[in-house]
Design a protein that fits this description.
Number of helices: 11
Largest sheet: 8 strands, mixed, barrel
Shape: globular
Protein name: EAL domain-containing protein
Number of strands: 10
Helix content: 40-55%
Strand order of the largest sheet: 1-2-4-5-6-7-8-9
Bound molecules: ligand C2E, calcium ion
Order of helices and strands: HEEEHHEHHEHHEHEHEHEEH
Domain EAL: 23-277
Low-confidence stretches: none
């Protein structure tokens, strides 16, 4: 048993160095991809549940590698975070999202909010206020149409620092959303102090509706809680008509999900906007 134990340690150790090497390689490729212009933003519609109107778009990052094809953010955001690449990458995302939002306005398409994801490291350790100011100024996109999504876990990690940054962003006139709400263990006392506009119910609570009574209770409680605090509530990951009807019944404000559309390249999203304008 003893020798098996040490063998297991050996394998584990080799796996670790292998994993570390792969991480380093990925980090180098990531930096290069950003320089070479291989990053794209896709846009997922956000729909008002009462009117059915398209009211916003969440910008979601994609890495278009010439050899490997589309690489998911779940694979590279963690590496970007721990290596610091998230700094320049996050700035690129903000600039691109604002430029695109302004392009659609210039084309006379219906006005909508653009939501941008901000990671923990980017939120607390980079100059996010400076980066958003610059992106807005350079693009001409109005602050009131830019929404930043910050995960509940990021806010829970350093609530005092988070509150300070949120207040600065709020002074700029931006909208603020708490992403993945319900998964981050933030205390309600902190939540009350955060100057946010929107709670996004994590898709993990939507997925099993209508089969999970617990998830239905949690979702309707989050909707009630958000409304009691004067916030809008958006449900993520809506895939079926039953889920949509449940959320409508509970008075949820907006939704996102495959039931309406997957995230789309900007050109395809513009076609949705043109349809919206047509009626
Ligand atoms: P998130 O912010 O929670 O984004 C929601 C994820 O759910 C997206 O995955 C979206 O494509 C996916 N999704 C949307 N509707 C449905 C649905 O109906 N069913 C299912 N199963 N999934 C749905 P994606 O695009 O792969 O992004 C994954 C995560 O990567 C995001 O989670 C976000 O945390 C992060 N991310 C994406 N773009 C950025 C970015 O520009 N900056 C930062 N910091 N993080 C980003
Ligand atoms: Ca998000
Ligand atoms: Ca989310
Ligand atoms: Ca998530």
């Amino acid at each position: 048993a003893k020798s098996r134990g040490s063998n297991a340690w050996c394998f584990f150790h080799e796996d670790m160095t292998q994993a570390a090497r792969e991480r380093l390689a990925l980090e180098a490729r990531l930096r290069r991809a950003l320089d070479l212009g291989h990053m794209r933003l896709y846009y997922q519609p956000q729909v008002d549940l009462a009117t059915g109107r398209l009211v916003g778009a969440e910008a979601l990052l994609r890495w278009l590698d010439p050899e490997q094809g589309l690489i998911s953010p779940a694979r590279f955001i963690p590496v970007a975070e721990s290596s610091g690449v998230i700094g320049p990458l996050g700035i690129w995302v903000l600039n691109e999202a604002c430029r695109q939002g302004q392009r659609w306005r210039d084309q006379g398409l219906p006005e909508l909010t653009i939501a941008v994801n901000v990671s923990l490291h980017q939120f607390l350790l980079t100059d996010i206020v400076g980066a958003t100011t610059q992106a807005l100024t350079e693009s001409g996109f109005p602050a009131r149409l830019l929404e930043l999504e910050i995960t509940e876990s990021a806010l829970a990690e350093k609530p005092e620092e988070a509150l300070f940054v949120l207040n600065r962003l709020r002074e700029q006139g931006l909208r603020l959303a708490i992403d993945d709400f319900g998964t981050g263990y933030s205390s309600l006392a902190h939540l009350k102090r955060f100057p946010v506009d929107l709670l996004k119910i994590d898709q993990g609570f939507i997925r099993d509706i209508p089969n999970s009574a617990d998830d239905m209770t949690i979702s309707s409680s989050v909707i009630a809680l958000g409304h009691a605090m004067g916030l809008k509530v958006l449900a993520e990951g809506v895939e079926t008509r039953e889920q949509l009807q449940f959320l409508q019944q509970k008075g949820c404000d907006c939704f996102q999900g495959y039931y309406c559309s997957r995230p789309l390249p900007a050109e395809d999203f513009a076609r949705l906007l043109e349809k919206e304008r047509a009626g």
